[in-house]
Protein backbone atom coordinates (compact mmCIF):
# COMPACT_ATOMS: atom_id res chain seq x y z
CA UNK A 1 0.00 0.00 0.00
CA UNK A 2 1.31 3.46 -0.88
CA UNK A 3 2.53 5.66 1.97
CA UNK A 4 0.26 8.37 0.58
CA UNK A 5 -3.14 7.66 -1.01
CA UNK A 6 -2.22 9.16 -4.38
CA UNK A 7 -1.00 6.02 -6.10
CA UNK A 8 -4.18 5.28 -8.13
CA UNK A 9 -4.09 8.74 -9.71
CA UNK A 10 -0.39 8.28 -10.46
CA UNK A 11 -1.11 5.00 -12.28
CA UNK A 12 -3.96 6.53 -14.27
CA UNK A 13 -2.53 9.92 -15.14
CA UNK A 14 1.19 9.81 -14.49
CA UNK A 15 0.74 12.64 -11.98
CA UNK A 16 0.82 11.79 -8.28
CA UNK A 17 -1.73 13.55 -6.11
CA UNK A 18 -1.00 14.96 -2.66
CA UNK A 19 -2.40 13.07 0.30
CA UNK A 20 -6.14 13.79 0.56
CA UNK A 21 -5.70 16.91 -1.60
CA UNK A 22 -7.12 18.02 -4.94
CA UNK A 23 -4.40 20.37 -6.24
CA UNK A 24 -2.47 18.64 -9.02
CA UNK A 25 0.17 21.35 -8.85
CA UNK A 26 1.05 20.46 -5.28
CA UNK A 27 4.78 19.87 -4.96
CA UNK A 28 6.27 16.51 -3.97
CA UNK A 29 9.56 16.43 -2.06
CA UNK A 30 10.65 12.82 -2.58
CA UNK A 31 12.24 10.93 0.29
CA UNK A 32 15.97 10.44 0.21
CA UNK A 33 16.67 6.79 -0.61
CA UNK A 34 18.24 4.46 1.90
CA UNK A 35 17.77 1.25 3.81
CA UNK A 36 14.29 0.51 5.11
CA UNK A 37 15.51 -0.21 8.65
CA UNK A 38 18.80 -0.36 10.57
CA UNK A 39 20.53 -3.63 11.34
CA UNK A 40 18.99 -5.49 14.27
CA UNK A 41 20.79 -4.65 17.49
CA UNK A 42 22.30 -1.47 15.99
CA UNK A 43 19.23 0.74 16.02
CA UNK A 44 20.03 4.41 16.76
CA UNK A 45 18.41 5.91 19.85
CA UNK A 46 16.93 9.43 19.71
CA UNK A 47 15.45 11.73 22.35
CA UNK A 48 12.68 13.97 21.05
CA UNK A 49 12.22 16.94 23.38
CA UNK A 50 8.70 18.32 23.06
CA UNK A 51 5.44 16.49 22.45
CA UNK A 52 3.63 18.98 20.26
CA UNK A 53 2.91 18.52 16.56
CA UNK A 54 6.57 18.85 15.55
CA UNK A 55 7.87 16.44 18.18
CA UNK A 56 5.20 13.85 17.51
CA UNK A 57 5.84 14.07 13.75
CA UNK A 58 9.58 13.53 14.31
CA UNK A 59 8.95 10.64 16.72
CA UNK A 60 6.55 8.91 14.31
CA UNK A 61 8.87 9.38 11.32
CA UNK A 62 11.90 8.00 13.18
CA UNK A 63 10.06 5.06 14.75
CA UNK A 64 8.60 4.03 11.39
CA UNK A 65 12.18 3.49 10.19
CA UNK A 66 13.15 1.37 13.18
CA UNK A 67 14.83 4.06 15.30
CA UNK A 68 14.36 3.75 19.07
CA UNK A 69 12.66 6.93 20.28
CA UNK A 70 12.06 8.45 23.70
CA UNK A 71 9.58 11.32 23.56
CA UNK A 72 9.76 13.84 26.43
CA UNK A 73 6.86 16.23 27.08
CA UNK A 74 6.86 18.46 30.16
CA UNK A 75 3.06 18.64 30.34
CA UNK A 76 0.91 15.70 31.33
CA UNK A 77 -0.65 15.75 27.85
CA UNK A 78 0.71 15.58 24.33
CA UNK A 79 -0.18 18.33 21.88
CA UNK A 80 1.93 21.36 22.76
CA UNK A 81 -0.05 24.45 21.81
CA UNK A 82 -2.82 22.18 20.46
CA UNK A 83 -3.21 20.21 23.69
CA UNK A 84 -6.22 20.02 25.96
CA UNK A 85 -6.69 19.35 29.65
CA UNK A 86 -9.54 18.56 32.03
CA UNK A 87 -10.96 21.30 34.25
CA UNK A 88 -11.92 20.62 37.89
CA UNK A 89 -15.54 20.18 36.75
CA UNK A 90 -14.65 17.57 34.14
CA UNK A 91 -14.85 19.78 31.04
CA UNK A 92 -12.04 20.16 28.53
CA UNK A 93 -10.06 23.38 28.13
CA UNK A 94 -7.63 24.20 25.30
CA UNK A 95 -5.62 27.15 24.04
CA UNK A 96 -8.18 27.94 21.36
CA UNK A 97 -9.43 26.50 18.11
CA UNK A 98 -7.08 25.56 15.27
CA UNK A 99 -8.03 25.32 11.60
CA UNK A 100 -6.90 22.15 9.84
CA UNK A 101 -6.70 23.42 6.26
CA UNK A 102 -6.82 21.02 3.31
CA UNK A 103 -3.39 22.22 2.12
CA UNK A 104 -1.83 21.02 5.39
CA UNK A 105 -0.63 17.92 3.56
CA UNK A 106 2.04 16.80 6.01
CA UNK A 107 -0.03 17.47 9.13
CA UNK A 108 -2.93 15.54 7.67
CA UNK A 109 -0.61 12.70 6.70
CA UNK A 110 0.53 12.60 10.33
CA UNK A 111 -3.06 12.54 11.61
CA UNK A 112 -3.88 9.71 9.20
CA UNK A 113 -1.38 7.50 11.00
CA UNK A 114 -3.87 7.24 13.87
CA UNK A 115 -7.07 8.05 11.95
CA UNK A 116 -6.64 6.79 8.36
CA UNK A 117 -9.87 8.32 7.01
CA UNK A 118 -9.80 11.42 9.23
CA UNK A 119 -13.16 10.39 10.62
CA UNK A 120 -12.56 12.53 13.71
CA UNK A 121 -12.53 15.69 11.57
CA UNK A 122 -15.51 17.57 10.23
CA UNK A 123 -15.62 20.32 7.59
CA UNK A 124 -16.56 23.90 8.41
CA UNK A 125 -18.95 25.46 5.93
CA UNK A 126 -17.59 29.00 6.30
CA UNK A 127 -15.35 31.27 8.34
CA UNK A 128 -17.06 34.66 8.01
CA UNK A 129 -15.44 37.95 8.93
CA UNK A 130 -17.45 40.76 10.50
CA UNK A 131 -16.28 44.37 10.77
CA UNK A 132 -17.77 46.78 13.28
CA UNK A 133 -18.84 49.00 10.36
CA UNK A 134 -21.26 46.26 9.30
CA UNK A 135 -19.36 44.77 6.37
CA UNK A 136 -19.22 40.99 6.29
CA UNK A 137 -17.10 38.68 4.18
CA UNK A 138 -17.54 34.99 3.41
CA UNK A 139 -15.33 32.31 1.85
CA UNK A 140 -18.10 29.80 1.23
CA UNK A 141 -18.94 28.70 -2.32
CA UNK A 142 -15.98 30.49 -3.89
CA UNK A 143 -14.15 28.90 -6.81
CA UNK A 144 -11.15 27.01 -5.47
CA UNK A 145 -8.57 27.58 -8.20
CA UNK A 146 -6.64 30.86 -8.58
CA UNK A 147 -7.22 33.35 -10.11
CA UNK A 148 -10.94 32.55 -10.21
CA UNK A 149 -11.12 32.41 -6.42
CA UNK A 150 -9.75 35.96 -6.24
CA UNK A 151 -12.14 37.20 -8.94
CA UNK A 152 -15.11 35.57 -7.25
CA UNK A 153 -14.20 37.04 -3.89
CA UNK A 154 -13.73 40.57 -5.23
CA UNK A 155 -16.95 40.52 -7.24
CA UNK A 156 -19.12 39.70 -4.23
CA UNK A 157 -17.06 41.45 -1.53
CA UNK A 158 -18.46 44.14 0.77
CA UNK A 159 -14.91 45.39 1.36
CA UNK A 160 -13.14 45.34 -2.01
CA UNK A 161 -14.42 47.49 -4.84
CA UNK A 162 -13.30 47.40 -8.45
CA UNK A 163 -12.52 51.11 -8.26
CA UNK A 164 -10.26 50.37 -5.28
CA UNK A 165 -8.38 47.78 -7.31
CA UNK A 166 -7.79 50.37 -10.03
CA UNK A 167 -5.98 52.57 -7.50
CA UNK A 168 -3.66 49.82 -6.33
CA UNK A 169 0.06 49.98 -7.08
CA UNK A 170 0.48 47.07 -9.49
CA UNK A 171 4.27 47.19 -9.12
CA UNK A 172 4.08 46.53 -5.40
CA UNK A 173 1.20 44.06 -5.82
CA UNK A 174 3.25 41.76 -8.07
CA UNK A 175 4.94 40.46 -4.91
CA UNK A 176 1.67 38.71 -4.04
CA UNK A 177 1.57 36.77 -7.30
CA UNK A 178 5.17 35.63 -7.66
CA UNK A 179 6.07 33.90 -4.40
CA UNK A 180 9.09 31.64 -4.32
CA UNK A 181 10.96 30.73 -1.18
CA UNK A 182 13.55 31.69 -0.06
CA UNK A 183 13.65 34.49 -2.70
CA UNK A 184 10.51 36.13 -1.32
CA UNK A 185 12.19 36.44 2.09
CA UNK A 186 15.31 37.91 0.53
CA UNK A 187 13.17 40.59 -1.12
CA UNK A 188 10.56 41.34 1.54
CA UNK A 189 11.70 40.18 4.98
CA UNK A 190 13.06 43.63 5.89
CA UNK A 191 9.65 45.21 5.20
CA UNK A 192 6.77 45.06 7.69
CA UNK A 193 3.42 43.65 6.61
CA UNK A 194 1.47 46.84 7.23
CA UNK A 195 3.97 48.84 5.19
CA UNK A 196 3.66 46.47 2.24
CA UNK A 197 -0.14 46.67 2.23
CA UNK A 198 0.10 50.47 2.32
CA UNK A 199 2.58 50.40 -0.57
CA UNK A 200 0.13 48.28 -2.56
CA UNK A 201 -2.54 50.88 -1.66
CA UNK A 202 -4.99 48.38 -0.32
CA UNK A 203 -8.11 50.28 0.78
CA UNK A 204 -8.26 50.63 4.55
CA UNK A 205 -11.07 48.13 5.04
CA UNK A 206 -9.37 45.64 2.73
CA UNK A 207 -6.10 46.07 4.59
CA UNK A 208 -7.88 45.18 7.82
CA UNK A 209 -9.41 42.18 6.09
CA UNK A 210 -6.03 40.97 4.88
CA UNK A 211 -4.74 41.23 8.40
CA UNK A 212 -7.75 39.43 9.88
CA UNK A 213 -7.53 36.51 7.46
CA UNK A 214 -3.80 35.93 7.35
CA UNK A 215 -1.83 37.99 9.83
CA UNK A 216 -3.99 37.37 12.91
CA UNK A 217 -2.75 33.79 12.94
CA UNK A 218 0.66 35.09 14.06
CA UNK A 219 -0.79 36.97 17.09
CA UNK A 220 1.19 40.10 16.19
CA UNK A 221 0.33 43.55 14.91
CA UNK A 222 1.09 43.80 11.16
CA UNK A 223 3.65 46.54 11.79
CA UNK A 224 5.66 43.95 13.79
CA UNK A 225 5.28 41.15 11.22
CA UNK A 226 7.55 40.45 8.27
CA UNK A 227 5.91 41.27 4.94
CA UNK A 228 7.44 38.07 3.57
CA UNK A 229 5.40 36.07 6.10
CA UNK A 230 2.19 37.83 5.07
CA UNK A 231 2.86 37.34 1.35
CA UNK A 232 3.68 33.68 1.92
CA UNK A 233 0.40 33.28 3.81
CA UNK A 234 -1.52 34.81 0.88
CA UNK A 235 0.21 32.30 -1.37
CA UNK A 236 -0.40 29.23 0.81
CA UNK A 237 -4.08 29.82 1.45
CA UNK A 238 -5.39 31.83 -1.49
CA UNK A 239 -3.18 32.74 -4.42
CA UNK A 240 -0.96 29.65 -4.73
CA UNK A 241 -3.25 26.76 -3.86
CA UNK A 242 -6.52 25.39 -5.20
CA UNK A 243 -7.42 23.66 -1.93
CA UNK A 244 -9.49 26.66 -0.81
CA UNK A 245 -9.71 28.74 2.37
CA UNK A 246 -12.13 26.52 4.25
CA UNK A 247 -10.93 23.90 6.68
CA UNK A 248 -11.75 21.01 9.00
CA UNK A 249 -11.91 20.91 12.78
CA UNK A 250 -11.91 18.00 15.24
CA UNK A 251 -15.40 16.79 16.09
CA UNK A 252 -14.33 16.27 19.72
CA UNK A 253 -11.83 17.99 22.04
CA UNK A 254 -8.20 17.63 21.00
CA UNK A 255 -7.28 14.95 23.54
CA UNK A 256 -10.02 12.55 22.39
CA UNK A 257 -9.87 13.40 18.69
CA UNK A 258 -6.09 13.61 18.20
CA UNK A 259 -3.72 13.00 21.07
CA UNK A 260 -5.06 9.91 22.79
CA UNK A 261 -5.21 7.98 19.48
CA UNK A 262 -1.79 9.38 18.52
CA UNK A 263 -0.28 8.27 21.83
CA UNK A 264 -1.61 4.76 21.21
CA UNK A 265 -0.07 4.84 17.74
CA UNK A 266 3.29 6.00 19.09
CA UNK A 267 3.28 3.24 21.68
CA UNK A 268 2.44 0.66 19.01
CA UNK A 269 5.47 1.88 17.03
CA UNK A 270 7.67 1.27 20.08
CA UNK A 271 8.07 4.94 21.07
CA UNK A 272 8.56 5.45 24.80
CA UNK A 273 6.26 8.37 25.57
CA UNK A 274 7.16 10.21 28.77
CA UNK A 275 4.67 12.92 29.63
CA UNK A 276 5.34 15.04 32.70
CA UNK A 277 9.04 14.78 31.77
CA UNK A 278 10.83 18.13 31.56
CA UNK A 279 14.28 17.95 29.98
CA UNK A 280 16.60 20.13 32.03
CA UNK A 281 19.83 19.92 30.03
CA UNK A 282 21.43 18.32 26.97
CA UNK A 283 25.15 17.58 27.09
CA UNK A 284 27.18 16.73 24.00
CA UNK A 285 29.29 13.58 24.18
CA UNK A 286 31.78 12.13 21.74
CA UNK A 287 29.28 9.49 20.57
CA UNK A 288 26.03 11.40 20.95
CA UNK A 289 24.19 13.37 23.62
CA UNK A 290 23.27 12.97 27.27
CA UNK A 291 19.75 14.05 28.17
CA UNK A 292 18.97 15.07 31.76
CA UNK A 293 15.30 14.74 32.72
CA UNK A 294 15.08 13.65 36.32
CA UNK A 295 17.80 11.13 35.50
CA UNK A 296 20.41 10.97 32.76
CA UNK A 297 20.21 8.99 29.54
CA UNK A 298 22.61 8.69 26.60
CA UNK A 299 21.26 8.87 23.05
CA UNK A 300 22.71 9.10 19.56
CA UNK A 301 20.84 12.30 18.64
CA UNK A 302 18.34 14.85 19.91
CA UNK A 303 15.35 16.54 18.26
CA UNK A 304 14.60 19.90 19.90
CA UNK A 305 10.88 20.41 19.26
CA UNK A 306 10.12 23.12 21.81
CA UNK A 307 8.40 26.47 21.77
CA UNK A 308 10.46 29.67 21.90
CA UNK A 309 10.57 29.94 25.67
CA UNK A 310 11.33 26.27 26.18
CA UNK A 311 14.07 26.21 23.54
CA UNK A 312 15.76 29.31 24.92
CA UNK A 313 15.71 27.93 28.46
CA UNK A 314 17.06 24.51 27.48
CA UNK A 315 19.85 25.95 25.33
CA UNK A 316 20.82 28.37 28.09
CA UNK A 317 21.08 25.40 30.47
CA UNK A 318 23.18 23.43 27.93
CA UNK A 319 26.29 25.61 27.48
CA UNK A 320 28.24 23.17 25.29
CA UNK A 321 25.42 22.49 22.82
CA UNK A 322 26.20 23.09 19.13
CA UNK A 323 28.19 26.39 18.78
CA UNK A 324 28.27 29.77 20.56
CA UNK A 325 26.93 31.49 17.44
CA UNK A 326 23.99 29.09 17.21
CA UNK A 327 23.18 29.50 20.90
CA UNK A 328 23.26 33.28 20.51
CA UNK A 329 20.71 33.00 17.71
CA UNK A 330 18.42 30.96 19.92
CA UNK A 331 18.77 33.51 22.73
CA UNK A 332 17.63 36.24 20.30
CA UNK A 333 14.34 34.52 19.45
CA UNK A 334 11.31 36.58 20.42
CA UNK A 335 7.68 35.85 21.15
CA UNK A 336 4.53 37.68 20.13
CA UNK A 337 2.63 39.87 22.59
CA UNK A 338 0.22 38.14 24.98
CA UNK A 339 -3.02 36.64 23.75
CA UNK A 340 -6.10 35.61 25.71
CA UNK A 341 -8.43 32.68 25.14
CA UNK A 342 -11.57 32.73 27.30
CA UNK A 343 -13.94 29.75 27.19
CA UNK A 344 -17.34 30.47 28.71
CA UNK A 345 -20.09 28.03 29.61
CA UNK A 346 -23.27 30.13 29.39
CA UNK A 347 -26.84 29.57 30.54
CA UNK A 348 -28.41 30.45 27.18
CA UNK A 349 -27.67 29.38 23.61
CA UNK A 350 -26.31 31.32 20.69
CA UNK A 351 -28.64 31.43 17.71
CA UNK A 352 -28.51 28.16 15.78
CA UNK A 353 -27.54 29.93 12.55
CA UNK A 354 -24.38 31.43 14.08
CA UNK A 355 -21.15 30.35 12.41
CA UNK A 356 -18.90 28.01 14.40
CA UNK A 357 -16.08 30.54 13.91
CA UNK A 358 -16.37 34.26 13.34
CA UNK A 359 -13.48 36.63 12.80
CA UNK A 360 -14.15 40.14 14.04
CA UNK A 361 -12.50 43.49 13.41
CA UNK A 362 -13.02 46.99 14.72
CA UNK A 363 -14.86 45.99 17.91
CA UNK A 364 -11.92 46.70 20.20
CA UNK A 365 -10.20 43.72 21.80
CA UNK A 366 -12.38 40.96 20.33
CA UNK A 367 -10.70 39.12 17.45
CA UNK A 368 -12.64 35.88 17.22
CA UNK A 369 -15.82 34.23 18.51
CA UNK A 370 -16.19 30.46 18.43
CA UNK A 371 -19.47 28.72 19.28
CA UNK A 372 -18.10 25.34 20.28
CA UNK A 373 -21.45 23.61 20.72
CA UNK A 374 -22.04 24.09 16.99
CA UNK A 375 -19.29 21.64 16.08
CA UNK A 376 -17.73 19.90 19.11
CA UNK A 377 -19.34 16.88 20.73
CA UNK A 378 -18.52 17.66 24.37
CA UNK A 379 -19.80 21.23 24.11
CA UNK A 380 -22.91 20.07 22.28
CA UNK A 381 -23.61 17.66 25.14
CA UNK A 382 -23.44 20.62 27.55
CA UNK A 383 -25.95 22.52 25.41
CA UNK A 384 -28.29 19.53 25.22
CA UNK A 385 -28.02 19.00 28.98
CA UNK A 386 -28.46 22.61 30.12
CA UNK A 387 -29.94 24.57 27.24
CA UNK A 388 -26.90 26.85 27.30
CA UNK A 389 -23.88 27.23 25.03
CA UNK A 390 -20.09 27.09 25.11
CA UNK A 391 -18.50 30.19 23.60
CA UNK A 392 -14.82 30.98 23.18
CA UNK A 393 -13.48 34.52 22.83
CA UNK A 394 -10.00 35.40 21.53
CA UNK A 395 -8.01 38.60 21.95
CA UNK A 396 -4.63 38.89 20.20
CA UNK A 397 -1.63 41.23 20.47
CA UNK A 398 -2.48 42.47 23.95
CA UNK A 399 -0.25 44.88 25.81
CA UNK A 400 2.35 43.48 28.19
CA UNK A 401 1.09 43.36 31.77
CA UNK A 402 -2.55 43.68 30.78
CA UNK A 403 -5.18 42.94 33.40
CA UNK A 404 -6.84 39.66 32.47
CA UNK A 405 -10.12 40.38 34.24
CA UNK A 406 -10.40 43.75 32.54
CA UNK A 407 -9.81 42.17 29.13
CA UNK A 408 -12.40 39.45 29.83
CA UNK A 409 -14.98 42.06 30.86
CA UNK A 410 -14.32 43.99 27.64
CA UNK A 411 -14.65 40.84 25.53
CA UNK A 412 -18.02 40.07 27.12
CA UNK A 413 -19.32 43.55 26.30
CA UNK A 414 -18.10 43.23 22.73
CA UNK A 415 -19.62 39.74 22.41
CA UNK A 416 -23.03 41.26 23.13
CA UNK A 417 -22.55 43.65 20.21
CA UNK A 418 -21.71 40.77 17.89
CA UNK A 419 -24.27 38.23 19.19
CA UNK A 420 -27.02 40.28 20.90
CA UNK A 421 -28.97 37.16 21.90
CA UNK A 422 -26.25 36.49 24.49
CA UNK A 423 -26.79 39.85 26.23
CA UNK A 424 -27.19 39.22 29.94
CA UNK A 425 -26.25 35.55 29.70
CA UNK A 426 -24.97 34.15 32.99
CA UNK A 427 -21.45 32.69 32.95
CA UNK A 428 -21.84 29.29 34.62
CA UNK A 429 -18.15 28.44 34.28
CA UNK A 430 -15.14 30.20 32.78
CA UNK A 431 -11.63 29.09 31.90
CA UNK A 432 -8.92 31.40 30.61
CA UNK A 433 -5.48 31.10 29.00
CA UNK A 434 -3.32 34.24 28.97
CA UNK A 435 0.02 33.45 27.40
CA UNK A 436 2.88 34.83 25.30
CA UNK A 437 4.75 31.89 23.82
CA UNK A 438 4.16 32.04 20.06
CA UNK A 439 7.11 32.85 17.78
CA UNK A 440 7.36 36.40 16.47
CA UNK A 441 8.38 36.65 12.80
CA UNK A 442 9.59 40.22 12.95
CA UNK A 443 10.91 42.09 9.91
CA UNK A 444 14.52 41.11 9.23
CA UNK A 445 14.46 37.97 11.38
CA UNK A 446 14.29 35.25 8.72
CA UNK A 447 18.04 34.96 8.09
CA UNK A 448 18.83 34.42 11.77
CA UNK A 449 16.06 31.96 12.65
CA UNK A 450 17.22 28.45 13.56
CA UNK A 451 17.05 25.97 10.70
CA UNK A 452 16.11 22.32 11.05
CA UNK A 453 19.72 21.23 10.81
CA UNK A 454 22.43 22.71 13.02
CA UNK A 455 26.23 22.72 12.84
CA UNK A 456 26.07 19.56 14.96
CA UNK A 457 24.65 16.57 13.03
CA UNK A 458 23.43 15.02 16.29
CA UNK A 459 21.15 17.99 17.08
CA UNK A 460 18.18 19.03 14.94
CA UNK A 461 15.35 21.53 15.50
CA UNK A 462 11.64 21.22 14.72
CA UNK A 463 8.66 23.49 15.26
CA UNK A 464 6.82 26.45 13.81
CA UNK A 465 9.65 28.71 15.01
CA UNK A 466 12.14 27.07 12.63
CA UNK A 467 13.18 28.51 9.30
CA UNK A 468 12.33 26.26 6.37
CA UNK A 469 12.56 27.34 2.73
CA UNK A 470 9.17 25.89 1.83
CA UNK A 471 5.68 27.44 1.59
CA UNK A 472 4.34 26.15 4.92
CA UNK A 473 3.08 27.95 8.01
CA UNK A 474 1.67 27.46 11.49
CA UNK A 475 0.67 23.84 12.28
CA UNK A 476 1.84 22.69 8.85
CA UNK A 477 5.25 24.23 9.45
CA UNK A 478 5.43 22.35 12.74
CA UNK A 479 4.55 19.03 11.12
CA UNK A 480 6.82 19.60 8.11
CA UNK A 481 9.85 20.52 10.20
CA UNK A 482 9.21 17.47 12.40
CA UNK A 483 9.42 15.21 9.38
CA UNK A 484 12.41 17.14 8.01
CA UNK A 485 14.25 16.81 11.32
CA UNK A 486 13.67 13.05 11.25
CA UNK A 487 14.74 12.88 7.60
CA UNK A 488 18.00 14.68 8.40
CA UNK A 489 18.87 12.14 11.09
CA UNK A 490 17.76 9.19 8.95
CA UNK A 491 19.97 10.34 6.09
CA UNK A 492 22.98 10.40 8.42
CA UNK A 493 22.34 6.74 9.25
CA UNK A 494 21.73 5.71 5.64
CA UNK A 495 18.00 5.14 6.23
CA UNK A 496 15.18 6.07 3.88
CA UNK A 497 13.36 9.30 4.63
CA UNK A 498 9.71 10.28 4.20
CA UNK A 499 7.99 11.93 1.25
CA UNK A 500 6.63 15.40 1.91
CA UNK A 501 4.26 17.71 0.05
CA UNK A 502 3.73 21.45 -0.13
CA UNK A 503 1.64 23.87 -2.14
CA UNK A 504 3.52 25.00 -5.28
CA UNK A 505 6.61 27.04 -4.47
CA UNK A 506 5.87 29.66 -7.14
CA UNK A 507 3.00 31.77 -8.37
CA UNK A 508 0.42 29.89 -10.42
CA UNK A 509 0.28 32.34 -13.34
CA UNK A 510 3.24 32.38 -15.74
CA UNK A 511 2.04 35.77 -17.05
CA UNK A 512 2.06 37.33 -13.58
CA UNK A 513 5.43 35.73 -12.76
CA UNK A 514 6.94 37.27 -15.88
CA UNK A 515 5.44 40.66 -15.00
CA UNK A 516 6.88 40.42 -11.48
CA UNK A 517 10.24 39.42 -12.91
CA UNK A 518 10.28 42.52 -15.11
CA UNK A 519 9.45 44.68 -12.08
CA UNK A 520 12.34 43.16 -10.12
CA UNK A 521 14.73 43.58 -13.03
CA UNK A 522 13.74 47.23 -13.46
CA UNK A 523 14.24 47.81 -9.74
CA UNK A 524 17.75 46.33 -9.92
CA UNK A 525 18.71 48.56 -12.85
Question: Can you describe what's shown?
Answer:
This protein is an alpha+beta fold. It is built from 17 helices and 22 strands. It has helices spanning 7-13, 53-63, 105-114, 148-156, 162-167, 170-177, 183-188, 193-200, 204-213, 227-239, 254-268, 308-316, 324-331, 377-386, 404-418, 474-492, 510-524; strands at residues 27-29, 45-49, 68-73, 84-86, 92-94, 100-101, 121-123, 129-131, 136-137, 247-250, 272-275, 281-285, 288-293, 295-299, 301-304, 339-346, 357-361, 368-371, 389-395, 427-435, 459-461, 500-502. It has a seven-stranded mixed beta sheet, with helices on both faces. A hairpin with a 4-residue loop joins β8 (129-131) and β9. α6 crosses α17 (510-524).
Write the topology of this structure:
Layout (H helix, E strand, L loop, with lengths): L6 H7 L13 E3 L15 E5 L3 H11 L4 E6 L10 E3 L5 E3 L5 E2 L3 H10 L6 E3 L5 E3 L4 E2 L10 H9 L5 H6 L2 H8 L5 H6 L4 H8 L3 H10 L13 H13 L7 E4 L3 H15 L3 E4 L5 E5 L2 E6 L1 E5 L1 E4 L3 H9 L7 H8 L7 E8 L10 E5 L6 E4 L5 H10 L2 E7 L8 H15 L8 E9 L23 E3 L12 H19 L7 E3 L7 H15 L1
Parallel strand pairs: 2-3, 2-15, 3-11, 8-17, 15-21
Antiparallel strand pairs: 1-22, 4-5, 6-10, 7-10, 8-9, 12-13, 13-14, 16-19, 16-20, 17-18, 18-19
Helix pairs in contact: 2-16, 3-16, 6-17, 8-10
Features:
525 residues, disordered N terminus
Short description:
With 525 residues, the chain is an alpha+beta fold.
Q: Strand content of the residues, in percent? A: 15-25%
Q: What is the percent of helical residues?
A: 25-40%
Q: What is the arithmetic mean of pLDDT? A: 90
Low-confidence stretches: 1-16
The assembly state of the depicted protein chains is single chain
Radius of gyration: 23 Å
What does the overall shape look like?
Answer: globular
Separate helix tally: 17
User: What's the N-to-C terminus distance?
Assistant: 54 Å
Number of E-state strands: 22
Structural class: alpha+beta
Described by strand count, sense and barrel closure, the largest sheet is: 7 strands, mixed
Strand order of the largest sheet: 9-8-17-18-19-16-20
Amino acid sequence: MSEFPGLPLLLLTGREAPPSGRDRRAHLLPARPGRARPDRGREPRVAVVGGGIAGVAAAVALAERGVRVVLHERHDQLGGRVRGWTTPTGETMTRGFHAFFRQYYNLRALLRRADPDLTRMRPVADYPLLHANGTRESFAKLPLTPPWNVAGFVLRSDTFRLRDLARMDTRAATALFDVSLPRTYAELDDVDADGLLRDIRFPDAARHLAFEVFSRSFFAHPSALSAAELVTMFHIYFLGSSEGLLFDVPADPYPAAIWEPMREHLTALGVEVRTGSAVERVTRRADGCRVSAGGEEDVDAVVLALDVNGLRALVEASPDLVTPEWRAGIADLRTTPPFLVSRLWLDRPARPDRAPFLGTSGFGRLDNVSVLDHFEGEARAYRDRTGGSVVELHAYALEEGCDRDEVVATLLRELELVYPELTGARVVQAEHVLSADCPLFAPGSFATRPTVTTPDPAVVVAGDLARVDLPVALMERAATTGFLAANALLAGWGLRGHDLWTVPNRGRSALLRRAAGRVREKART
